[in-house]
Specification:
Cell division ATP-binding protein FtsE, alpha/beta, 34% helix, ATP-binding, Rossmann fold, Cell_div_FtsE, 2 domains, 6-stranded mixed beta sheet, binds adenosine-5'-triphosphate
Length: 219
């Protein structure tokens, strides 16, 4: 599904932040991405979401060489990847419902074709009662779930989440993890970047560990 071969990345003229990164994300897999602060987790997620290009090495996503993608192809492939950003990136002037529906609106789908699905997903993440409020009045955990719902609405084949349990209490963190596992069971490949060793220890999942720009896979 995704394959990195000897990928290196530097920002501008700075040092290499990622070095010789080689790994794959198999279909229907579940994995954590971890490592100390500043190790390069967010950078790796940006490469996976095609919002950064590597300075060296090869990235193959859904059978395509990432270096050769034009803007339209990049946009089309991104629709197959859901991402939950660390800072949520909800639009404050749109309601929770509208934020979650946004990826479908961008695809120019008719509202009647997705209204029920958006509502159902919002119920599923426990935001059924918060559908019509604006993000500034949502709690941190509610914003997180809205961001997760928005990432899921296009039924992505890969879900990437950057510290999705970083702003929530342990009970909600476990609920969110159950939600990711349920998603994984429906066939989506899930990659969760986290610092939370306690959380990872609760699940027998693959771990991708970055240290000083190098990645080691523990299956
Ligand atoms: N836009 C940028 N320009 C220059 N350097 C950057 C940029 N973004 C990140 N870096 C540097 O790249 C390195 C890796 O950063 P990155 O955000 O990927 O780490 P991280 O593992 O996600 O950290 P954290 O766990 O603290 O979120 C850091 O040294 C950081 O300072």
């Amino acid at each position: 599904m995704v394959r990195f071969e000897n990928v290196g990345l530097r920002y501008g003229m700075g040092p290499e932040v990622l070095r010789d990164v080689t790994f794959g994300i198999p279909p229907h897999s579940f994995q954590f991405l971890t490592g100390p602060s500043g190790a390069g987790k967010t950078t790796l997620l940006r490469l996976l979401f095609l919002s950064l290009r590597p300075t060296r090495g090869l990235i193959n996503i859904f059978g395509r060489d990432a270096a050769k993608l034009g803007p339209d192809e990049t946009a089309a492939l991104r629709q197959r990847i859901g991402i939950v950003f660390q800072d949520f990136r909800l639009l404050d002037h749109l309601t929770t419902y509208e934020n979650v529906a946004l990826p479908l609106r961008v695809q120019e789908k008719e509202e009647a074709s997705y209204r029920a699905e958006v509502r159902e997903l919002l119920q599923w993440v426990g935001l059924g009662e918060r559908m019509h409020v604006l993000p500034p009045v949502l709690s941190g955990g509610e914003k997180q779930r809205a961001a997760i719902a928005r990432a899921l609405i296009s039924r992505p084949e890969i879900l990437l989440a950057d510290e999705p349990t970083g702003n929530v209490d342990p009970g909600l963190a476990r609920r969110l993890m159950r939600l990711f596992l349920e998603l994984h069971k429906t066939g989506t490949s899930v990659l969760i970047a986290t610092h939370d060793i306690g959380l990872m220890d609760q699940f027998d999942a693959r771990r991708l560990v970055i240290n000083q720009g190098r990645l080691t896979v523990y299956d």
